[in-house]
Structure formats: C-alpha cells, structure tokens
Design a protein that fits this description.
10 strands, Rossmann fold, alpha/beta, single chain
C-alpha cells in the first residue's frame, strides 16, 4: 500500500534522510526506531509531503504521490498523529471528536462510535476538557480523531512520549487492533524499542538518516533491535 523507494530529504543543502526504502502492506504494522537526531520525524514529513524529497519516490495505494501536496495525501487515506498529544485543550473530548466526525454528515455518528470503541475511556470523559486529561488520555484522543477519517494508513510519531506505562500498553493493544481488525497499515516511529518492536510486523533501525538494521517484530526480537540501536 505504501511504497517508499530510495527516499532522500533534508533542509536546504543538508541531507537528513538518505536513500530509504521500505513497504507497508495493507493491514501491517511497520516500526521505525532510532535515537534522537536519527531522522525519524524528517522521514515521516517527507512521506506526508511536509518536506520536499531530494531523491526517490513515495507511492500510496498504487499511485505516485511524491509531488502531491499533504492535503492530497490525507484525502487519499493517510492519517497523521504528530508528536505531542495534540488536541483543542479548551474543548471537551466530545467536541474534539465531533469537530472531525461532523464533516461526514450522515456517517458522523458511526465514525464517532468507531473511534470511541477503540478507546472506551474517551466515552467516560466525554464531557471533560481535553486540557484536563492526562498525557496518555490526550494521546488516545489524538489517535481517535485520526481514526474517524477511516484511514488506510496511520502514521504515528512517538506516541508514547511522556505517557504512563499502563496507557502505553493500552495504546499498543489499540494499534494492533487497528491492524488486525480494521486492516489499517501503520507506520510508527519510536525510541522505546519494546513498545515499537514486540507487536509490530516489521521494524527498521534508523541512524544518521539510513537504515542500519531490519527484522521481523516480536517479543523475542526486542533485544536484537536494542543491540542494533547501540551500534
């Protein structure tokens, strides 16, 4: 579904991501792990069209979108959950969800219900202002807002940053459910290796803008991935 081939990008004359290739089939979870400064967010921005490519191609759903604007990629079925648990803090959870859902007319309630089903805690706190939620609850809200669009591909940038361990586990289970139950492809970038690797289908280790290791996901692969990051 997503095909990244020889992708390079950067800022001005500085190349940050160099000759990256990977695929995300429908209903598969691909994790990209790396330390700070590895180029993870820059890679996501290039896939989304937020950074221009200096080489290579991005294909989505069989179409070349290398030169497509970000909004065109979103309309084609990409969804992006950026780093930082973003929401409208002065609005309630319910209002945050309806801002997205109400765009879909007669489908609004069904889409809203699907999002809340993925994260039941949001129903419990429907009337609470988003700014009063914990970091983990705000992250669940951010992912639920993206789910309302019924994406083909969900792109997540460091979704565990600053989140308590019990909610990290809930988010991991929810991502696996998106993949298995809804057939959504997932690209996730993370520093927390266990979260990223133990339930993904494939992982890649990014360092200095290049992939230095790759493997199949699974609990038995976590230590191998950690060792690759230490190289």
């Amino acid at each position: 579904m997503l095909e990244v081939n020889g992708l390079s990008t950067g800022y001005g004359k500085v190349t940050v991501v160099n000759d990256i290739s990977f695929d995300v089939p429908e209903g598969k979870w691909v994790s990209i792990i790396g330390n700070n400064g590895a180029g993870k967010t820059s890679l996501l921005k290039a896939i989304l069209g937020l950074l221009p490519t200096t080489g290579g191609t991005v294909k989505f759903d069989g179409k070349d979108v290398t030169k497509a604007a970000p909004n065109q990629r979103i309309r084609a079925g990409m969804a992006f959950v950026p780093q930082g648990q973003q929401s409208f803090g002065t609005m309630t959870v319910d209002e945050n969800l309806h801002v997205v859902a109400d765009r879909y007319g007669s489908e609004a309630q069904a889409r809203y219900d699907e999002a809340v089903e993925a994260f039941p805690v949001l129903k419990e706190f429907a009337g609470r202002r988003a700014g009063l939620l914990s970091g983990g609850q705000r992250q669940q809200l951010s992912i639920a807002r993206a789910l309302i669009t019924r994406p083909k591909l969900m792109i997540l940038d460091e979704p565990t940053e600053g989140i308590q361990p019990n909610i990290v586990a809930d988010i991991q289970r929810s991502i696996r459910s998106m993949v298995e139950d809804r057939g959504i492809g997932v690209v996730l970038v993370e520093q927390k290796v266990q979260f990223a690797v133990e339930r993904c289908d494939t992982y890649h280790v990014l360092a200095s803008g290049r992939f230095i290791a790759s493997g199949k996901g699974g609990a038995d692969q976590v230590e191998t991935a950690k060792e690759a990051m230490r190289v």
